[in-house]
Amino acid sequence: VRVPSGPTAEAETDRWMKLVADKADDGGWLVVRGSHPGDQAVAAVTLGTLSHAAVFDKQRNEVIEAVAQGVVVTPLRALLAQAHRLVIVRPPGWTPEEGRKAVARARTHVGRGYDWTGLVGAEAQTRFYC
Question: Whole-model pTM?
C-alpha cells in the first residue's frame, strides 16, 4: 500500500483520531496495516491484512511501539497517518486498572532494541517486536 497523502488522507486520519478517542481503551492495542517498508515486508511474508500493533496511551494520545529503531513512543496521529487499515482491540482481561498497568509496563521498555530474530520464532528476552 502507498503512504496516504493529501486532503482525503488527512480527513481519514481526523476520522480515525476521533474513532480512537471514542472507542479505544487506555492500554488497548491499535493494530494497523501500515505503509512503512517494514509493514510492507510483514504483510508480504504473512499474507496478512494487518502488519503492526502498538499499545495505546489514551492519557497522552500516544502509542508505545516496537519499530526498526527499537521501542519508541509515537504520537497517535503519526501512527494513524501512515496506516491503511485500523483495528482497535481490547485485550483479554482488560480493566481500566489493567490498561494503566499495560501502558506503564510498555513505557519501561522504551529504548530497548527491536527483536529481529523474534520475527522468525527465536525471541530475545531483552528486545521486542510488535
Answer: 0.88
Write the DSSP assignment of 86-107 as a string of letters: EEEE--TT--HHHHHHHHHHHH
Q: What are the C-alpha distances in Å from 49 to residues 23, 40, 85, 98?
A: 21, 10, 8, 28
- Is residue 41 within a helix (H) or strand (E), and if so which, with residue range? helix 37-46
CA distance 85 to 13: 11
How far apart CA 20 and CA 84 sit, in angstroms, is: 15
Cell output for 63: 502509542
> What distance in Å separates the CA atoms of residue 61 and residue 77, rounded to the nearest whole number?
8
CA distance linking residue 16 with residue 82, whole number of Å: 12
Cell matching residue 15 = 476520522
Please give the pLDDT value at position 58: 98
